[in-house]
Write a structure and sequence with these properties.
Elements: H1 6-12, H2 15-30, H3 32-59, H4 64-70, H5 93-106, H6 110-121, H7 125-146, H8 151-159
Helix pairs in contact: 2-6, 5-7, 6-7
């Protein structure tokens, strides 16, 4: 799927077809040839973002700090640069424990598991961003379903999240890092 529509597409499928689709896609991604092609595509994507950053700095050197802040490549590769830990230092130990318990329960929710499968199946940066958003939404809903009293803790975390980068989410958005 192109254009970041995979999570939307998966949501429209009947559960049995969705499971078959995800399984077939995951199996295809296990093929060594597909893995090589995926690595080549990711390398090309990284090269594009590196070139974009360099060109933007060349065009307007005064944007260097903004580019470093908002258009940065994750240090640890795939999985880095997520929300992990943002605002957690603002929570009490009891709130962290409550959040962890709700999170563990939510991981068993079918909607969360489907969204997690969607994240694993995503191959393009835009697909990964959209799948991550869908997973985040499903996780929030499942955590609230598992423990409605966790809502103030979630709101407290959201209040300490980073501001969205300029133009985030648009079709020509280059502010999101490749993952």
């Amino acid at each position: 799927m192109h254009g970041g529509r995979l999570p939307e597409f998966l949501q429209k499928l009947p559960p049995d077809v969705k499971a078959r689709f995800i399984a077939a896609r995951q199996k295809a991604l296990e093929d060594p040839k597909m893995q090589d092609l995926k690595k080549q595509a990711e390398a090309a994507n990284h090269a594009f973002f590196d070139a974009m950053r360099a060109k933007m700095e060349e065009i307007d050197p005064g944007l260097e700090d903004v580019i470093k802040q908002y258009i940065k490549r994750p240090e640890g590769g795939k999985g880095s640069g997520g929300r992990g830990g943002l605002g957690m230092d603002k929570l009490t130990q009891a709130e962290r424990d409550q959040l962890k318990a709700a999170h563990e329960k939510a991981m068993n929710d079918p909607a969360v598991q489907a969204a997690e499968a969607g994240k694993k199946a995503a191959t393009t940066p835009q697909d990964r961003r959209q799948a991550a958003e869908a997973f985040h939404q499903a996780m929030q809903e499942a955590m609230l379903k598992a423990d409605p009293t966790v809502e103030p803790v979630l709101k407290k975390l959201e209040a300490h999240g980073p501001p969205p980068p300029p133009g985030a989410g648009g079709p020509d958005d280059t502010s999101a890092p490749p993952q």
